[in-house]
Here is the input.
Amino acid sequence: MKESLKNWKKQKVIYEDYAIFTPGPVKMSDEILKIGAMQTPYFRNSEFSDVTFSCENSLLEMVNAPQGSKVIFLTASGTAGMEAAVMNLLNKNDKALVVNGGGFGSRFENICASHEIPHTNFVVKNTNLSDIESLAPDEDYTALVVNAHETSVGHLYDLDAMGAYATKNNMLFMVDAISMLVTDPLDMQQSNIDVVIASSQKGLALPPGLTMVILAPNALNKVQDINSLYFNFKDYLKNGERGQTPYTPAVTIMLQLEARLNQIKERGGVARSIASAKEIATYFRESIKALPVKEYTPYMPNAMTTLTPTDGKSAMDIVNDLEKDYKVMVCPNGGPERDIVFRISHMGEMTKEYTDILINALHDYYGIRRT
Amino acid sequence: MKESLKNWKKQKVIYEDYAIFTPGPVKMSDEILKIGAMQTPYFRNSEFSDVTFSCENSLLEMVNAPQGSKVIFLTASGTAGMEAAVMNLLNKNDKALVVNGGGFGSRFENICASHEIPHTNFVVKNTNLSDIESLAPDEDYTALVVNAHETSVGHLYDLDAMGAYATKNNMLFMVDAISMLVTDPLDMQQSNIDVVIASSQKGLALPPGLTMVILAPNALNKVQDINSLYFNFKDYLKNGERGQTPYTPAVTIMLQLEARLNQIKERGGVARSIASAKEIATYFRESIKALPVKEYTPYMPNAMTTLTPTDGKSAMDIVNDLEKDYKVMVCPNGGPERDIVFRISHMGEMTKEYTDILINALHDYYGIRRT
Here is the structure.
């Protein structure tokens, strides 16, 4: 067999043979995929600046950003967005309250430690922090940092309550919204959010490689000089004035982002996308009531369902069996709870029909008839 | 008109209507584009680890890396590769000799300054440094840093001579090969290169967003602990042992990279790709002899031709006129020489027939019959 043909076949298997319910990458729409097959255009011109401006305006509108907010487009994964936000907005004179409810909260904590930002590792469990006022340590903080959806376990925090607490205490409110944007509500003005970090391969349902940091005027005022070229927000803001980035952007993903943001508008706006994700998530959760699994947390987002086996089975074994026997990909917990919880994404181009593949596979796996 | 249709039409114009001779993004092959239109697969599994290993092995073979070399895959633009290499391999006890022959050499100098690496800004002009032995300042250096092809002006340095000088003086030899890999010769063992930085959107002819740092054992021994998560080579090396990256990789571009490296092998290997780029570059340079332009430097790579008008015309005007009147995109010099030099890429899926579009446009523009 010709090498390229072998290669092609392998790629077909990797791509097309599985039903995918992993929380990133997620299923993309045909319209977005088509753009991936086009030549990458030259980008140092006004045509591409218009693409950047269009993405910026649509994103700001989608999160109801306050007047004067800006978007930074980083060619990088989400972690770079988290790290760059900390590097550009916090320093040794700050004191950050970092919510740590799992693997991603722990990552924010590592980032603050690595950059020597004074902080408290605020370990939380079994709360969505609607009671943050009473739970938070009684100390003076300058910033509140959280992953709106702690993706390692599927736990959604109460952004309104956190924002009210941050505002009352004059704290910068920094929110990683990577795995809940588009599927769960986020309103910068309503929740008094100063920084939103988003990424291409979750609810936005694009290929991975593009991360956005949205800065409200409060955050823009705090952008400082830092010892970094690639993560230097001042450079990005300066170039952003003419719709450009200091270094080569992920051009193709930017074009896909523009199309995707227009698609969301045409389909009825982000509220409609959120309602649709909620509908799918509810449908899934209702349809598996007869199975020996239970919801891991009462604070689940629309983006994802996390399940715990109630019959003593290992969650990791279930993940492996579904892949091997049913060609259905769900996701383990990457950390210490790998045997206790597995994760099912409802992000991306999801329908009830597509979700039925997983629902039916789970019923067959347990030998329980779907009712 | 429906919004999506308007959007689509605009994208068609951005993508398809122009003949592109810009040094990144460059023209891609149909095989690579097809992969861009497929669903991004889940990647935390052995199938994707195999993709990573395949990319690593093919890259190491392509640059004739010494036994024990490793590749770090960064989801980022090329500048991140330059900065990450400096951050992970140099520190305050080093003294770097940084070759600065234009915009990209100047960027390396900024990176060293930003990270407080002691260094000399070694400004060079009208030399390919085959005489580096006599030109270099007579000081003790620990590292030699260069952009093999200074892309801002199309100037190729003599890596053999530089490597011999670095070895003789016990210096780490760090080479940004971003805009010459695949089109111009690079041999890590022959030139005693310790670090090679490569990027997806130049000679590799893939979409932008993936950068690779190749580390020879000499460099691997120097990898140090640093205050960064996203650029922490130790994490990448540890995860690389199982074919993974610490953070979400540019999955689609990785799959395109695997296919592209196989394509290069099937077409006769990298030597054949280099010969082909040389043939196209020579064809172009021979075909425009009658026009009032001259080659900007005697040290041009196969990757690119840089031209200076000899009739007093502004280079920037020529770039704009070609785009407006002929739908042909060539590239200005982004710096102070914008009126003196313009740039024509021969990287990517180039043929003589495609190059004829530009040759004919230039003849028509000057009103000179092509002979």
Observations:
- DSSP finds 13 helices and 15 strands in chain A.
